Amino acid sequence: MITPTPITLPIDALKSDVEKVIKKNNIIVQADTGTGKSTRLPVWAMALGKVLVVEPRRVACTSLAAFVAKTIDSEIGERVGYAIKFDYRFDESTNIVFATPGVVLRWFAENQLAQFDVVMIDEFHERRAETDLLAALLIKHDKHRLLITSATLDSEKLAGYFSADVIKANAKSYGVTVNCHSRDTQSTPTGRDLEQRLLPVAQNAIARGGDILVFLPGKKEISSCQSLLKHLDADIIPLHASASESDRKRALEIGERQRVVLATNVAETSLTIPGVVTVIDTGLERRTHQRNGRTALALHAISQASAKQRAGRAGRITAGFCEKLYGEHAPLELFTPPELEREDLIETMLAAACCGVRLDELAFLSPLPSKSLTSAEARLIGMRAIDDKGNVTEHGRLLYPLPIDSLFAHLITGMRTKSNREAMCDLAAILQTPMRVWQRQSGDLALDAYKDWNRNVCDVVTSIAVIRGEQPDEVLVDSLALNEARVLSASLREALGLPQWEVASRFDREAFLRNVIEISPELVFVRRERRQQAFGNGISEVVLSRDSDFPDTPQSAIVFDQFHLAGKGSKQTTSYATCLAPIPFNWISDADLGIWEVIEHQEIDGMILDSKQRVYAGRIIETVQQESEGDGLIHAMCQQILNGELFPGVGDRISDDVAYWNLYQQFEAITPEPNIEAATWLCDRLRTLGIESQDDVELIDGEDLMFDGVPEWELKDFVEKYPLRLVLADLHLSVEYNKLKRTVIVHHVKGSRKDGPKRWELPPWKGWKIQYKKASRVITVT
């Protein structure tokens, strides 16, 4: 066997220092990308035992594992292996395992990583949510030697957090010349006319020679630029999370032709693209952030730290160039905010609970947002994933190992039948695949044929059919994305002991959707009456995405998936529904969603009837008329009594007695009690008397409805002193008292008298100012 020729890397000069420090303490290695820290440090750490290397990206895990295995003359899966979602190559004798944070957290929940002696967290400066949680757990557990690598973060702050020594390494650089392509030196990165601004810069870079690395915010922009640049004399290679294996290989290996690699942040750290002479930096990335209580996805300008990382990709093999499509002095933030500060904490909190710790009890490098903590706890308690004390439940332990969002895991485990669980596994697999798996063929003819096949125009029906290979020709499928979705579906089915999709059980749409409503009623949305493109569930609002075929007629739907985009306003966030299943209103009624509102009481043939509406998210779902009962009956009887329709005269007496009692409290009581309403008192009195049905009315009379207010021996004199109504010649008045202003206002009620009352016609009211009010006119009575 031929031993590979050793490659000298910048970090090799620090080998003795690293080996010396790591024997007695945790260590932080601060080094630029390309120094070799990801490949050398795990090998040196083997002296302490088995090494686990936590890599933020799947492609980095597999690529680094293969490279390290080659450097120590081993096959992948023997001394060096990897573990990513749905794929692993290692065994109990493997010395170094590269793994993604999600996989490592699940191992920690099982046995606190007891099989490893050293845990290396690579590229910690990216501040991924799972990586931050893992770091906090490892610090609390304090059973492993920690090796942390970071390119840009404050090393002193990290040293204090990890109780570690710091070693710094610098990558060899031939220098990078930075050119800014912007009229204004302070202009910020923008996506406007991005492809057109990129083209001449790329052409000049190709003419200069050497490979070119272009940083773009996402797959959409990569695809557009790939089409625009395809006529150039170069190999145009896309590199993103869902790129094909052949594209990844072309990007990571120097080819015969000059290359232009169009990459997302996947090429900013972890992966080294060899042969790069020129970096073209758009200054953009697509990332999440919290806005108006939601995790929104939007284009953002990168941080200064990211800009430095990107520029550093050039100048490794010869003098390099960084062409920036934004101003030299653009006001960029210093660092990219950690994910835990800009995303919801539901998955993170459940992971912590499964590891036996409350999330708010862990020490993080930066504090967690209190609103996000409260929201996540409420959601998980609602799912029955944690209890009121924050401890994980058996249901939560069942949800956590499933490699999907907790909502879909909750839906799967809540399904009543085997066929529904299978259907939910397939639907979740489609929705959790990063790439778009299917889309309808364009054109009216294709739409008509699609509607003939899927008469409800239900995205759920199509998605499940696509997984199972039952879709019509009008549904176009991305084979690469479909394969990834089927792998996920197979994994979910295997974990739950279900048959694979090739022999799936028959799918019954109605039974499935009614089961979903039962488990997660918050997924039910109804159209806004005036804005038919918008749907609400009483908590949030979504609008139909542009490519949705959701019909115009259905007024309600189950919304399985949505994405949030930041709007122009400082707090505006638009949520787009991307997977909908139309449902009729009566399903909402059958699920007993919404609230009943009594809109009218009627008496028909001596029976009191309520006209009631079921209202959900502002829409009237159904209207019914039924015999009054409970509080509805009490309020109807109260209204009838006060109106004089029931027990004539009693309602007026109660209204007067209550009014005089409130006035008495105001003027005479030593310790005044709060004012009461006649209707409130009467309803409480009817409840006290045990009124439950209309037949009970015959068991009471007006004497049972006596209000015990102003003492009887004081009442006559008090009424004479402070009357509430006055009857004069051709004039009826009501009386209002303002004790604070010592003012009496007499209001015109009815009467033919043109002039107001005379002072001698009114009670004495000594020391009070008296005013007469008719309509909007107020005059003083003298």
TrEMBL record:
SUPFAM superfamilies: P-loop containing nucleoside triphosphate hydrolases. Keywords: ATP-binding, Helicase, Hydrolase, Nucleotide-binding. Gene3D superfamilies: 1.20.120.1080, P-loop containing nucleotide triphosphate hydrolases. CDD domains: DEXHc_RHA-like (cd17917), SF2_C_RHA (cd18791). Residues 193-363 form the Helicase C-terminal domain. One of its GO terms (molecular function) is helicase activity. The keyword ATP-binding applies. The keyword Zinc-finger does not apply. InterPro entries: DEAD/DEAH_box_helicase_dom, Helicase-assoc_dom, Helicase_ATP-bd, Helicase_C-like, P-loop_NTPase. Residues 18-171 form the Helicase ATP-binding domain. PANTHER family: ATP-DEPENDENT RNA HELICASE HRPB. This is DEAD/DEAH box helicase. It comes from Enterovibrio qingdaonensis.
